[in-house]
Automatic annotation (TrEMBL):
It holds the Pfam family TetR_N. Keywords: DNA-binding, Transcription, Transcription regulation. Gene3D superfamilies: Tetracycline Repressor, domain 2. SUPFAM superfamilies: Homeodomain-like (SSF46689), Tetracyclin repressor-like, C-terminal domain (SSF48498). Residues 23-42 bind DNA. It comes from Cobetia crustatorum. This is TetR/AcrR family transcriptional regulator. The lineage of its organism: Bacteria, Pseudomonadati, Pseudomonadota, Gammaproteobacteria, Oceanospirillales. PANTHER family: HTH-TYPE TRANSCRIPTIONAL REGULATOR YJDC, TRANSCRIPTIONAL REGULATORY PROTEIN. One of its GO terms (molecular function) is DNA binding. The keyword DNA-binding applies.
């Protein structure tokens, strides 16, 4: 349980401050444990990043699943409502996974953690849409919306919802 709590606190810090800025003393302070305890659970900054990414991944999937309709158009409309909320309140600095890749471009473990997250999102979209053959296209729309959020805000989410409906061959509302 302590590792989970540390990962949650590190996630919050990395989300707010990025990966390059926080010093060891800031990581320790944010984790609310001794330096020894922090390093026992996460022996390197990269392992702290991976722990934070895994925690965020679990939170994001649980957030998407909350009150989601079984599948189809309603499930995807729900996704975009949830994504708008997530971006506004949980990811105002953009996708933490993409930011981690930018901060650690040569770290295979960080890359693997990000790829696992993105692959599960792709799978989730295929399952929830009821059209697994369109999972990659839906994933690109989702990722585009989360990337464009920094520039377009809620308009990015609405455009993604509209593009998704067009892809599914349904009339726009």
């Amino acid at each position: 349980m302590i590792q989970h709590d540390i990962a949650a606190r590190l996630e919050s810090l990395f989300s707010q401050r990025g990966f390059a800025e926080p010093s060891v003393s800031e990581l320790k302070a944010a984790s609310s444990v001794s330096l020894r305890t922090l390093y026992r659970h996460f022996p390197s900054k990269e392992s702290m990043v991976i722990g934070a990414l895994q925690h965020r991944h679990e939170r994001y999937l649980a957030f998407l699943e909350e009150d989601v309709p079984a599948q189809g158009r309603d499930a995807l409309s729900h996704l975009y409502q949830r994504l708008a909320h997530w971006m506004q309140y949980e990811a105002p600095n953009g996708c933490m996974s993409v930011n981690a890749l930018a901060a650690f471009p040569d770290n295979a473990d960080v890359r693997d953690a990000v790829q696992r997250h993105k692959q599960e999102i792709l799978q989730w979209l295929g399952e929830r849409s009821g059209q697994p053959a369109l999972a990659t296209e839906l994933f690109l729309i989702h990722e585009g919306a989360s990337s464009a959020w920094l520039v377009l805000g809620k308009a990015a989410i609405e455009a993604a919802r509209s593009a998704t409906l067009t892809l599914l061959g349904e009339p726009r509302s």
